[in-house]
Amino acid sequence: MYLSKHKNGNYYIYFEDEFGRRKSITTKTKLKSEATKFLSEFKVYLKQRKESKTVSISIQHFITKFLIYSSHIHSENHTKSLRTTLIKLLEYSGNCNLNELNKQKVISFVEWRLSKVSNRAVKRDIANLSSAFNWSIEKNFLSSNLTKGIKKPKIVEKLPVYFTEAEYETLKRVIDNEDVRDIVEFGLLTGIRQNDLINLTWQQIDFKNSTLILDNRNSRTKSGKVHSLPLSISALQILSKREINKSGNLIFTYNGERFKQWFLCKRFREFVTKAGLSSQLSFHSLRHTFASWLIQKGVPLYVVSKLLTHSDLRTTQIYSHLKKENLSESVNLLTIDDKSNN
Fold this sequence. Notes:
It is a single chain. This protein has helices at about 30-50, 60-75, 75-95, 105-115, 120-140, 165-175, 180-190, 195-200, 235-245, 260-275, 285-295, 300-305, 315, 325-330; strands at about 1-5, 10-15, 20-25, 205, 210-215, 225-230, 255, 255-260. The protein is mainly alpha-helical. It folds into three domains: about 1-50; about 60-140, DNA polymerase, domain 1 (Orthogonal Bundle); about 165-325, Orthogonal Bundle (hpI Integrase, Chain A), CATH 1.10.443.10. Helix 2 runs antiparallel to helix 3 and helix 7 packs across helix 11. The longest helix has 21 residues, at about 30-50. Belongs to the 'phage' integrase family.
């Protein structure tokens, strides 16, 4: 390993990687004293990387392997989001080895993304990278999660978009396909996520105890935990009807075939448009509607949080505005007798 001055005036470090290939890296300085300091730090970095015994893999190869893994446990939309983040990381960093990344490079990537997209998108990027890096640690591609300690940008809180009861009745009237109507109705009655609905099987239904089990077998829950959720009479009626004509293991199918996430979203948007409702209403709005209606009917926020399988009550706080009248009712419970007139 040695320093050499390039014709552009900057000093470069020339070294051999673990496979004996000759490589170079710029010190980004024309001063020998600074280049020598960079060389010293680079030697320490290589030693630490060697001691960590991580397996070398190019970022491009890592992305391919991780997305294959993701496609088996995540929803189509989530895998698409992961792909977007990782392709942008590849664009920014180049196709170097994954274990050549460090925290400062990831911070620089985050800053670069902040200059191009919204805070919300960058917050999602950081979450996606954290997920990918955790998997990399399991596979021994990285020794630590490089997003640890990186602050997520603040985002403006948006109120959840949900259907009023009148809007939902209007939507139901225009859905002329029974398969779509059943999955929409069941989604509203249970509040479970779209990916869980699409992959829901008969083995996950306990008719005797009127419960539904999200067990990570067919689709991974967001928290990775197993959840047992109660089923209402209306939800059980949909299941009983579909059980009569079931032709496979999946509960919800379209003309006998598995629902594709993109297709279900597309058909749902078409029905929303046909009903003359707001374009802001999406399939995920059914989950918001489930929570919003429960809150409006007086169900405690903590209970709604459990039904939504939120791991943190703070996530459910976005619905708290729906019961502001309870605050007034609560403070009016306190009264002070005016004894001055006695």
